[in-house]
């Protein structure tokens, strides 16, 4: 069963407005390496974002690395996993997290509910979780959440403007990296590398502040605008306490005009700088 959803432009890709969800139930076919639903139908080649899910009844080391498998299990599951890899589908299940538990407590738990996503969908996966385990069924419900690019914040970046460069340079010069082991092994070399890497990274983190960009961030903001805002709010507060003084009211209006004019100029200058660097 396939469900096609149509979204507004720009949800997943500027030119793609269709999103397909394929739900399938597959069991063993006439032989061990055949299924009632062929792999090419479970993992189709579609030009738009596609999510496949369902009870595929497949047991494979990729999703359950700690279990042992019979040859029949590997013969029936390997063609499906190979097809998923060939067509770029990624299994969303965290390895080793079971999605089915036998009601008789005799059969072993398994990972047979396998949601997978094509490359156009994977970047927007934000959560895979199993919050409800006791539902009266042998299959547990799985919550899969996707976020549109609009809600993705940029990763933190160094705020070079607030970096104390003289202090950082002095600390870096004082940081002495010892020589690597004379007769290195994989363990001793790893300890030497990660120890000194942590020391250097800690030194940088002390002096370099991070800039976190969110939807409320204002890259055009400056210290001068902060001073103008302080002057405007102060003048406005004074004029409200002395409503009969015309000069105070005129001063508040003048500072307000200067404040909003400076905001427009700051936005315009930031936009020109951004376009010049593109």
Task: Give an overview in words.
Strand 2, helix 1 and strand 3 form a beta-alpha-beta unit. About 3% of the residues have low confidence. Helix 3 runs antiparallel to helix 4 and helix 5 runs antiparallel to helix 6. Helices cover 37% and strands 13% of the residues. The radius of gyration is 30 Å and the shape is extended. A five-stranded mixed sheet has the order 1-2-3-5-4, with no helix packed on it. The protein has 278 residues and is α+β, with helices and mostly antiparallel strands. It folds into three domains: 150 residues, Endonuclease/exonuclease/phosphatase (Deoxyribonuclease I, Chain A); 52 residues, no CATH class; 55 residues. It is built from six helices and nine strands. The longest helix has 32 residues.
Topology overview:
Blueprint: E1 2-6, E2 18-25, H1 39-42, E3 50-55, H2 71-86, E4 90-91, E5 116-117, E6 125-129, E7 143-146, E8 157-158, H3 165-174, H4 186-207, E9 210-211, H5 223-241, H6 246-277
Parallel strand pairs: 2-3
Antiparallel strand pairs: 1-2, 3-5, 4-5, 6-7, 8-9
Helix pairs in contact: 3-4, 5-6
Q: Helical segment tally? A: 6
User: CATH homologous superfamily of the largest domain, by name?
Assistant: Endonuclease/exonuclease/phosphatase
What is the CATH architecture descriptor of the largest domain?
Answer: 4-Layer Sandwich
Give the terminus-to-terminus CA distance. 45 Å
Uncertain spans: 9-16
What is the overall shape? extended
Kindly provide the radius of gyration, computed on alpha-carbon positions and rounded to a whole number of angstroms: 30 Å
Mean pLDDT, to the nearest integer, reads 83
| Spatial order of the strands forming the largest sheet | 1-2-3-5-4
Give me the oligomer status.
single chain
Largest sheet: 5 strands, mixed
Count the beta strands: 9
Binned, the helix content reads 25-40%
**N-to-C SSE series?**
EEHEHEEEEEHHEHH
What's the CATH first level of the largest domain? Answer: Alpha Beta
Which structural class do you get from the secondary structure elements?
alpha+beta
CATH topology of the largest domain: Deoxyribonuclease I, Chain A
- Strand fraction band? 5-15%
* Domain tally: 3
């Amino acid at each position: 069963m396939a469900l096609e959803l149509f979204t507004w432009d720009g949800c997943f890709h500027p030119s793609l407005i269709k999103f397909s969800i394929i739900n399938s139930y597959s069991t063993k076919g006439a032989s061990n390496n055949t299924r009632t639903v062929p792999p090419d139908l479970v993992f189709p080649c579609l030009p738009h974002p596609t999510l496949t899910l369902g009870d595929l009844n497949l047991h494979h080391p990729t999703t359950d690395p700690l279990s042992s498998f019979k040859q029949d299990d590997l013969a029936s599951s390997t063609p499906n996993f190979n097809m998923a890899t060939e067509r770029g589908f990624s299994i969303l299940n965290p390895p080793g997290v079971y999605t089915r538990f036998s009601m008789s407590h005799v059969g072993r738990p398994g990972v047979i509910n396998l949601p997978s996503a094509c490359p156009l969908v994977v970047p927007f996966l934000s959560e895979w979780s199993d919050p409800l385990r006791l539902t009266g069924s042998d299959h547990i419900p799985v919550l899969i959440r996707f976020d549109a690019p609009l809600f993705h914040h940029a990763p933190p970046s160094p705020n070079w403007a607030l970096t104390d460069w003289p202090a950082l340079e002095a600390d870096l010069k004082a940081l002495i990296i010892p020589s690597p082991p004379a007769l290195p092994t994989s363990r001793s070399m790893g300890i030497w590398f990660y120890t000194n890497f942590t020391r250097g990274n800690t030194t940088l983190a002390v002096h370099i502040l991070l800039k976190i960009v969110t939807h409320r961030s204002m890259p055009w903001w400056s210290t001068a605008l902060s001073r103008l805002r302080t002057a405007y709010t102060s003048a406005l507060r004074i004029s409200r306490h002395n409503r009969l003084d015309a000069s105070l009211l005129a001063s508040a209006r003048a500072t307000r005009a200067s404040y909003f004019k400076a905001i427009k100029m700051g936005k315009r200058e930031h936009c020109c700088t951004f376009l010049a660097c593109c």
